[in-house]
Each structure stands twice: as structure tokens, then as C-alpha cells.
Design goal:
alpha+beta, C8orf32 fold, seven-stranded antiparallel beta sheet, 8 helices
């Protein structure tokens, strides 16, 4: 098993682009910084950029933001953990950089919407944290789509190249997607779900970028 380092290697920590992360010594500061990074609309094609490329290009979508947040947390001694929120086939998964303060979990996210955002560290376990996204996760039709959540994916167990790679991290994305997930509800439960109200759908369309 790979030894768990308290912080990234010095060669990574001292990169000029990562100096900004040294100031982000609380999860709140990490989220505040991530909110200043423009959303990555992937207009030139789909991307899965490393934190180094994300900072150089100054844009991020949810996975790129989660990886950048995880690295910032790791810079300050917190483990770089990612939780995958998996949806029905007609929606898009969401990734959250999770952290723990005392006994409670919180989450840092990158999204262009008014929902699926930062979660305060008030949740007793990861299921509670994942379920906090449930009622906000729906399509324009009002269909609620969140179906499962993953165990924390510890990036310290992955090839450290994820922090600085010049290539897209499709292998890491696939590994997170294939990691162990826990179902939220049964088929009967899915069939019985009430659709989101029209006012919720309208509110969900509010965009930041």
C-alpha cells in the first residue's frame, strides 16, 4: 500500500502556480477561491484537467474544481478525498471534495448553478452529506435523479501525476466512477418520487457564469 503523505511532495508544493493554494488554510477559503475561477464550458471539447492545468487556464468544471479543492486541502494536512454523486442515465454526475472537522463532514464543489454547492461541516456521515444534495438534484422536467454516492476516493492512492499532468485525467475519472458506490433508494422508491415544483425548477436554472 502506498504510504499516506500528510502533504504533497515538495516539488509540487513549490510550483509557482500552487503558491496561491498555500493561503487557503480552511475549507471555506478553498471554496471562496474556487468560486472566483470561471466555469469551464468545454467549448473546445471535453476536458478533465489536472489542478496545474486548471490554474493555468483559469477555468474548471465540477471534477476539475473538486481535484483543485482536494489538492488545496492536502496542502494543509487534510486528506484529498473525492465523493462521486451518481445520477440516473439522463443526468450528469457531480463530484465533491469532502473534508471533516471534528466528527462532521462537509463538501467543496464547483458548479455553475445556484444549487449543488458548498456544504458546511455539519453532517454526521457521508450518507447524510450526500443526501443533502438529493432534493436539489433534478432535471428541467422536475425528475429527481440522484441515485448513489461513492466511498471517499483517496487521491493519495493514485498516481501523483494527477496534480500536474499535461494530459486529461480520463483514467482517474473512470476509476472514481468505478469505485464502490452506495445506492440511495430502491426501484420502488424511485417510482414513488415526487417531481420538483415548477418554482424549484426555475430557481435551479439560475447560473453564476
Amino acid at each position: 500500500m502506498r504510504a499516506m503523505q500528510r502533504q504533497p511532495p515538495n516539488a509540487v508544493r513549490e510550483l509557482a502556480e500552487f503558491r496561491v493554494l498555500k493561503k487557503l488554510d480552511t475549507p471555506r477559503k478553498v471554496q471562496d477561491f474556487l468560486d472566483t475561477v470561471p466555469i469551464n464550458f468545454e467549448r473546445g471539447g471535453e476536458t478533465c484537467m489536472s489542478p496545474l492545468r486548471t490554474l493555468r487556464r483559469n477555468r474548471a468544471h465540477c471534477m476539475e474544481g473538486a481535484l483543485l479543492a482536494a489538492l488545496a486541502l492536502w496542502m494543509h494536512g487534510r486528506p484529498p478525498l473525492i465523493m462521486d454523486l451518481k445520477t440516473s442515465d439522463d443526468d450528469v454526475d457531480h463530484l465533491v471534495a469532502v473534508f471533516k472537522i471534528g466528527r462532521h463532514w462537509g463538501g467543496i464543489t464547483k458548479t455553475n448553478h445556484a444549487v449543488l454547492r458548498y456544504r458546511e461541516p455539519v453532517y454526521r456521515d457521508l450518507r447524510e452529506l450526500a443526501m443533502s444534495f438529493f432534493h436539489e438534484y433534478f432535471l428541467d422536467s422536475g425528475k429527481k435523479t440522484l441515485r448513489s454516492y461513492s466511498e471517499p476516493f483517496d487521491l493519495r492512492e493514485w498516481d501523483p501525476n494527477w496534480m500536474t499532468s499535461a494530459d486529461d485525467l480520463w483514467d482517474l475519472e473512470a476509476a472514481i466512477d468505478a469505485s464502490r458506490h452506495w445506492s440511495i433508494l430502491s426501484r420502488r422508491g424511485i417510482a414513488g418520487l415526487r417531481r420538483a415544483d415548477a418554482i424549484e425548477v426555475r430557481a435551479g436554472k439560475l447560473k453564476e457564469w
